[in-house]
Structures are given as C-alpha cells and as structure tokens.
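Design a sequence for this backbone.
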C-alpha cells in the first residue's frame, strides 16, 4: 500500500508503464479527432432519422390527398383513372396555363417550408427516384443535407444582402395553388445568400415552365441586390452536367478563368460546370468595401478613399 505524506500520495503523477500511462500529445490529438468524428456521425444519423420522420408524415399527407397513388402520373383519357400530377399536366396543356403572377391560382411563390411541407417534398423525392429511370436521387443522396439546411437557423448572406432584398433561408420550397399543397420544387442557397447551390423540380411537373419560374425568382433577387451594390453584377453557378442546357436557356454561359484550388477539385470530382450570367450591363461603381468586391492586386492592403 503506498505511503501517504501529509495526505498526499507518494506515487508519481505520471504513470509511465502499462495501458494506464498518460497519453502523449499526438495520442490526445488522435483521440480528439476520433471523438469529433463519432460526434459528426451521430449527428448525421440523427438528421437522417428526423428526415425520415418528416418523410413518413409527408407521404401520409400526400396519400390522403390522392397524390401518391399508383397512377398519379397517368394522363389517362378517363378522368377517373387520371392521377394527381397527370391531371395537373393535362389541365396545364388544355387550358394553356402560364405560370406567372396574373392570378393567385397560378402565382409561383418561393418561401420557407414547414415541417409537413418538407416531408411532402421528401416523399415525392423518394418516389421520383424509384419510379423514373435516371431521376436525380435527392432523397437517398442528399436527404440528410437537405434536412440540415432546413434546420439551419441563420439565413445565409451578408447584412447588406438582407437589408436590400430580405433574408431568405438556406432551404426554400416553391409553391403554386394550382398544383396543391406540396412544394413542386426546392432550392438551396450558397453562403452568399443570393446564388442557387442546388435546385430540384418534381419529376411529374417538369417541362411546364415551373423550373424557369423558380430560377427567375433567384436571378431577379440577385439583380435587385446588384442594383444597390449589395451583390455582384454577375451571377456565377456550378451546374451539374444534366442541368447545363437548362441554365443555358436561362441566359447563363460557360465561364472561363481560373478557379480556386478547392473549387477546381470539387468541379473535377462532381463534374460541375462553371456558368455565369451578367445581371447588370451598366452596374453602379463599387465603393471598394462591398463584401463581394475584390480589389485589384496593386490596391490590396490599402483602404479605399471612402471606407473611413
């Protein structure tokens, strides 16, 4: 039994032998890294569980509405056998509907989603990737990331962006009363709070001009910001290969110039194509302290005249 002197153990403070020895600096760093990795894995698993809970509720809501029946995409001549999305497409063509802001019924609105609305979006994402060959696997590959964006409390973007065009959440849904209560599309913003990072339209509602309306809402918002120097006069996106034709039809073109090392690696891994659009032909002159303004090399390190 170790002797004690004045209530203090005579054993050395550092055990240098056996498994109970004090960890080295490197071991502590490795242990901290593994602990952080486990925490991140646990959080991703929790996000996946919450996304599945919303999807289950959303699927039930769409089922109750007859939206996810077996033949929901059918455009059968027999009205009774026509599915929910099929009905919408047939009526869209028969009535010559144009989705704009002419009436409330066909006005496209981009806004934050409720829990139930995101759940309905998750439900059609999963159904699309199971029903349509070649459909984007938003549910299985990005469902957790979408849930994380949905739970993000802070709206992305600089305070000048928020003051000029309002603060939009990281994740938004697109709605039109004509198509029912579920969002027909979703979009995620980049950190600048202006640029679309990812956008998806429900498979059954494609080729109806809806995707163009959603993209236009973001482009118009970025243009309004550029007019008051709250955003750059050029919009730059990373388009997945399958979406290049869509963005080109929206007015974007392939962008030249060098990428940052990180962006170059990501574009090579994902196959993304850098595309850009000029928002303003004659933009206001930057004052030099805008969040998006990059000074010429010879001016870096100096204050601009009006930044005092």
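Sequence:
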């Amino acid at each position: 039994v170790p002797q004690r002197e004045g209530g203090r153990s005579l054993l050395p403070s550092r055990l240098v032998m056996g498994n109970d020895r004090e960890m080295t600096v490197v071991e502590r760093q490795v242990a901290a890294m593994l602990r952080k990795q486990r925490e991140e894995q646990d959080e991703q698993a929790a996000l996946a569980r919450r996304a599945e809970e919303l999807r289950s509720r959303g699927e039930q809501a769409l089922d109750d509405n007859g939206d996810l029946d077996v033949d929901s995409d059918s455009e059968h001549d027999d009205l009774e056998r026509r599915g929910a999305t099929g009905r919408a497409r047939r009526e869209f063509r028969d009535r010559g509907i144009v989705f704009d802001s002419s009436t409330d019924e066909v006005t496209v609105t981009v806004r934050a989603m409720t829990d139930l609305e995101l759940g309905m979006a998750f439900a059609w994402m999963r159904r699309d990737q199971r029903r349509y060959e070649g459909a984007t696997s938003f549910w299985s590959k990005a469902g957790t990331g979408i849930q994380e964006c949905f739970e993000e409390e802070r709206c992305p973007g600089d305070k000048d962006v928020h003051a000029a065009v309002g603060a939009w959440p990281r994740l938004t849904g697109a709605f039109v009363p004509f198509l029912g209560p579920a969002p027909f599309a979703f979009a995620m913003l980049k950190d600048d709070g202006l640029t679309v990072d990812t956008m998806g339209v429900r498979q059954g509602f494609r080729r109806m001009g809806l995707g163009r309306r959603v993209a236009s809402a973001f482009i118009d918002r970025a243009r309004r910001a550029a007019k008051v120097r709250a955003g750059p006069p050029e919009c730059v996106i990373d388009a997945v290969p399958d979406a290049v034709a869509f963005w080109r039809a929206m007015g974007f073109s392939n962008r030249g110039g060098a990428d940052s090392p990180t962006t170059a690696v990501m574009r090579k891994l994902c196959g993304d194509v850098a595309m850009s659009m000029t928002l303003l032909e004659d933009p206001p002159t930057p004052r030099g302290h805008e969040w998006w303004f990059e000074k010429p090399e010879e001016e870096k390190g100096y204050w601009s005249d009006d930044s005092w």
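The beta strands are 4-5, 8-9, 109-111, 171-175, 185-189, 196-201, 234-239, 253-254, 273-278.
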